Every structure is written in C-alpha cells, then in structure tokens.
Amino acid sequence: MVEVMSPPLLLYKLRVTLTQAASHRQLSHKPRVTDNSHTRLTVSTSKLRACRATEEDIRSGPSSASQGNGSCNWDEGSSKTRAKKTTETRSDTNTKTREITLAGKFKASAQRKSSMNTPMVAGTWSFSKAAVLKAAEVIGTNNAPGVDAVEAGINVIEDDESYGPCFVGRGGPTNAAGQSELDAAIMDGSLLNFGAVAALSGEFSRPVSVARRIMENSPHSILTGSGADKFAREQGFSPHDGAKSTTLESPASVVTECGPGHDTLGLLVLDCSGNLCAGVSTSGMAGKHPGRVGDSPLPGCGLYADSTVGAACCSGDGDHILKFCPSYQVVSLIRQGQSVRDACQTVVKEVTERWSSRGLQPFELSVLAMDKHGQVGAATTVSEYQDPLTQTTYGGFPYTMWKPALTEPEIVLQQVV
Hints:
This protein has helices at about 5-25, 45-50, 50-65, 75-115, 130-140, 145-160, 205-215, 225-235, 250-260, 320, 325-335, 340-355; strands at about 30-35, 40, 120-125, 180-190, 195-200, 220-225, 265-270, 275-280, 305, 310-315, 365-370, 375-380, 385, 395, 395-400, 410-415. By secondary structure, it is of the alpha+beta class. It folds into two domains: about 5-90, no CATH class; about 115-415, Glutamine Phosphoribosylpyrophosphate, subunit 1, domain 1, CATH 3.60.20. The chain has an eight-stranded mixed sheet with strand order 6-5-4-8-7-3-15-16. A four-stranded antiparallel sheet has the order 9-10-11-12, covered by helices on one side. Helix 5 (about 130-140) runs antiparallel to helix 6 and helix 6 runs antiparallel to helix 7. The radius of gyration is 38 Å and the shape is globular. The protein starts with 6 loop residues before the first helix and ends with a strand. Residues about 25-115 and about 240-260 have low confidence and may be disordered.
C-alpha cells in the first residue's frame, strides 16, 4: 500500500501510475477513492516489487519540478528503460519457470521408471541354473509377467530327460509300479491364484503348464491322476513320444539309478510390475506308491506366493514337509516384519526342534524365499549335497539366483545354521 499524500502530489502520482499501468499492466486493480481526503492505491506485492524503481522516479518528479523552471523534468526515457528491464526480467523469470517445470516433468518420468521393480529370479538347487536363466530371459522380453517366466523356466528342466536324476520331469524316477507320475504347481501372488496337478501321467512332459491351465481355465485348483490326464488332453496337451513309462524290476533299482534324495525344482520370480510368482515341479520320490502325493502341489506346503509380502518354496521329504506348511509360515513371518533369511531360519528351526522332541532325526528340508523387494533368503537341514549332473559337492543347500546386475545366474550356498 502507498502512503496518503497531499492532493497535488497525489494527482501527479495517480496520473503517472495510470500511464505505467496502461503500458505495462503492472497494477492489479484500478485506483479506488475511498473518500474526499484519503486515496489508497491497491497493488499486489509482486507488482510493487517490480515497480519499486519507477516509484522512486515518481517521488522525485515534483521535487525536480519545483527546483527547476516550474515544468516537469521527470525522465520518461529512464522510466521506459527501467520498465523494459522489468519486462525482460519477467520474461527471464517465466523462461526459468518453464525450464523448472520441464525439468520436473523429466524428473517425474524418471521416478516413474525407477519405481518399476528390479526383477529377480531364484531357484532351488544348483541344477536349476538353466531354469533361472530362461526365466530371466523371459522377463527381459517386453517385461513379461512372472507367471510366464516361471512356466518357461521350469519347462526347460521338465522336458529334458537328462535332468531325471534331479527328480524332475519325464526323465525322473518311476513309482513302485514302474510308472512315471508327476507333481507340479504354480501360484500367482498378485491375485493368489493357484493351480496344481498331482500324479499326472509321465506321458505329459510339462506338468507345470498343465497346472497353469488349471489355474486359468478350470473352476478347480488341483486335479489328480486320471482326472488330471483327462484335463490335459482336453486342453490340447499331447503325450510326449519319449515319455518314460518303462516298468522296472524293483523300486530299489530306481533308487540306485537316481541316488537318495527328494529334490524338487522350485522357482521364484519377482517381475518388473512387482508381482511375485512361485512354481514347483517334481517326479516325486523314487519307488513311491502309485498315486502318492507329496508337498509340492499343495499350497502353503510346497509353495506359496503373495505379491504384497513374499513367496517361498520347499524341497525335501514331502511326506513330512506337508505336515508343517513351511512355505506359508515363511511368508507369514515376512508379513510380520522378519527379514527373508530370518523367516526361513525360524521356520526350519521350529520344524527341526519339533521333530527332534519326538526323538526323530531331522528330515530333508530346504526352504527358499523372496520378499516383495527382491530380497532372497534360505534355510536348510541339508549339510551336504552332490549335484547329480556335475557331481559337484556342496556343504549345504546350493540355490541359484539371478538379478540384472549379474551377467549369468550365480550359485549361493546356504549352510545349516
């Protein structure tokens, strides 16, 4: 606000100010007379700052006139120069504002891009390297969903008979009747969708793909035996020409061929959208009774995934694992605030203590987990493992993991704690 001045000075200032307002539009309001003796000029604070130099000339105008020959000596050229500078300053300010706004947009765009999750893949055992690598390749193609990556990764192992000694796929050991029966499951953590097959005929070489069809195309979640076979045919799956269905002389020969163990291929994937998916596949223990179902195709036992928390999968003696629902327990502990590693260790420790309290020796149990941030952890009761393909011996549970910073999957060893 401007001070109240005498009428002559007031009229002079009013005339000059109106002239400036017309040429530069610096006034936000027209002069308003409140009464006959007091007049106030209302201008915005920002405009007053812009006109401060001009006001100095206004104040000096009458003084210069009285000191001269009675005419007005106010330098209009100087005022116009200052006004031009003020306009240029405003123009520069507007340009900088646009630059700042544009920079903000680029920054927001970068933040949106950085908000995408860093993809992560982890698989049980050292032999899962090919599956992990395939899953990573799928994620890298147009940011494919985790479900696609899990299925494609597991298919690589299932459909290759050379992985039979790993107790996975159509090359795996047969049951007591010499028949190949496969278990597999997949869980999409974004909607908690689940699909599984149990005791699926070994004629079908990709059980996890059948499990996915159940998850997506069936009102049911688990199909077993001949019912699973029938569904697979209805969905267009055809028996593999090289399917293994040879009758063996005795279950003992199967155990000798594949060696002791209860390996299960488990795969966990965090995709670029932040969704978690888990998948498992196994031919089951050698020499099992026909129709036997272990932990692998059971939700919460062999696997579990919840994109708001984490995902987990298990490998080991499924007839005992399913009594404890370890995969669900691990995810539940992560939800309660435990780290991935601590959650795995807590569950395995509780299972071991409970088992030991009955005077029993610990059974084979390995748990692999991943949280929604891509942190990976594991726990195991396995003190030594020999990879059936490479014959490499590990002093614990070797699992495989991949992240974008790695040129290829790496093997991480989890020892008994």
